Amino acid sequence: MKYKYINKFVFYYSKQSFRLEDDGLEPIERSNLAKVMVVARQHYIERSISLPITLTKDVNAAIQFELEPLQSEFHLFHKVFSTSDGKTQVMIWQIPRDIVPKGVLLVLPETYLLSFILETNQICVYQAPSGASPVKLVKTTEKICSSASEQQSLAIFSQVAGVNLQNALEISVDHFLEYLLDALRISLKHLVKGFWVKPSSQQKDWGQTLKPLVVPFVTFAIGYLAISSLYVSYRLSSVTDIIEEQREDIETVLALQSGIHDTQSEIDEYQSMTSSEVPAFRMWQVFAPLYQQGVQFKFIRYNGEQVFFSATAKSASKVLEQLLNVKAVISPQFSTAVRKAGDEETFIIKFSLATVEESVDEK
Predict the structure, then answer these.
(1) What SS3 class is residue 300?
(2) Burial 231-240 (b: 16+ CB within 10 A, else e)
(3) What is the distance between the alpha carbons of residues 13 and 238, in angstroms, rounded to a whole number?
């Protein structure tokens, strides 16, 4: 029973849940499931996107923008696959929420696991003992590409993936679990990040939960406020008496503090006049014309150096072109690919704000 230990942690899903056995896959009851779920290819969407950015924070923002509309229906996982020539290649897996049992901590797409046993540009054809259709798989330097379609021939698949059929690996039903186990062992260190299931927050009826506590809480609050009011009144009376006794000294100290405050304000005002720091309010002078033209903003972020905003408009290029003509805007550019839905285009643009001195010089 070489799979006895692995079954304590891992189970396989293809229309139903299975444990791994020497003679294949054995159906397993939901109550006996482990915490790590390997999902068959036909149950998830696998795709690759190319982002024209390389900075980590920009890549994360773009991925979040890409995945946000899908959160309610899918568990979403991604891996940055490569970064070169000013572009970042990202693999995304969309796994339906309704096939992932409650209590599962880690969900692993089988194509991602099996890619670790392949050489670059090597095609693999495998079939799991679950009765699912054969899957074609290839790993290139930029992405993972796979297909479970019976209508797509291996020759067409290789042409689409841009690789040749030499040195192809075929994994039969009898040897699938051995290769899967080997892939799990090789990929172990890569699974620590990226495939954890985020717990769903369950709504709770707080009204019914807190109802028995309302009366004791209100009673305690009224008592506390009454005692506090009496104490504060006593302390106020005591302090008032002390202030009356020391009014002259206090007035002298207050006058001195007021003079110091006025002087500090004058110093701060002078320093702000010579500072090259860009005030954040200047970006609203940039956004006001766009808003009047009907541009719909989703978010605006300013990190002290650059302004990021997501918006929807009839033409993203016209918005960018308008920003290029604004003297207060430096280096406006798309942070992610423009997405079109009907007559509207959704996009993210980033730019820097020119200092007051820079704007005056340009004039």
Answers:
(1) strand
(2) eeeeeeeeee
(3) 75
CA 239 to chain centroid, in Å, comes to 55
Averaged pLDDT, 88-100: 94
Tokens of 355: 């200092």
CA angle 85, 88, 94 (to 5 degrees): 155
- The answer, yes or no, to whether residue 17 has pLDDT greater than 70, is yes
Domains of the chain in sequence order? 6-120+172-190 (3.30.420), 282-362 (3.30.1360.100)
The answer to whether 39 and 64 have CB atoms below 8 angstroms apart is no
First vs last Cα of the chain: how many Å apart?
80
Identity of the amino acid at 351: F
pLDDT for 101-119, tens place per residue? 988 999 999 999 999 999 9
CA-nearest of 352, 350, 333, 363 to 276 is: 352
Taking the C-alpha atoms of residue 351 and residue 363, their distance in angstroms, rounded to an integer, is 20
